[in-house]
Amino acid sequence: IKFILSEKQYLYIPQQVKKIGELHSVLQSHHSAIVVGPTCSGKSVIINVLTTIDGEVDDYSRRVIISPKAFPKEELYGVKCSVTNEWVDGYLTSGLKYVNKNPSINNKYFLIFDGQMDPSWIGDITSLLDDKKMVTLPNSETIYLNENVAIIFETGSIEHLSPDILSRIGIVHVASSDLPYRTYWTKFLLQRKDADMLSQFYEKYIQHVIDVTCDASSSELIERSLTFFIPQCTLNMLIQFCELISSLIPPPKYYSDESSVEYEEIS
Questions:
Q1: Which of 74, 142, 189, 243 is deepest in the core (most CB within 10 A)?
Q2: Which residue range or ranges hold the ATPase dynein-related AAA domain (predicted)?
């Protein structure tokens, strides 16, 4: 895990590594798992690292990622063409067939669903999640899941799922506190030659702004606590700030000698 984190230029965060271990343990006893937690809590990193174990760091051929809420049900499961009268597979069925093509136990494959778990689409694959590990398509075709295939759901909530579905799947909960927002700033500075200057800038201004806008315990610093018109987590705000910095003040390696004075003035 440490090697994969390093190769993918992720920081080593003990709590996040613990969650990767939890997901690995869950998939030893289940062929499907849910990674649930708020936005910007590190769910994607946990899944990315876990699905890379026992494979090449840059090998993405053993995983298929689908956002089920982005497509109507017909495009997920497939539809019969009214012109040719032939069956056309959907994104979900095509993904299933892809990860199912290699039955070798030495090659682990993953089907990853990224997005809200809604009964409107997940209800049709419940038989895929239990011991039967099979699904019957509208054209009567049956697909059986190979032993080397695991299904992972990445979602922010499981409130719409029935106990019947939850009893079939292993669950790993990720809290926002598992990924401290300051770690993103640390990773951002690793890509900058002006890290020392930006660190001073952060301590002098940014940390104070974060305390005032995002930390409820700091509300006594102002007359009333601030509220967001659109809810934002602290990490998401910091990511946006880093993107803004990268646009307004590109890393020094992009500057010519003639523009060094101008860069100092901007800083």
A1: 189
A2: 34-168
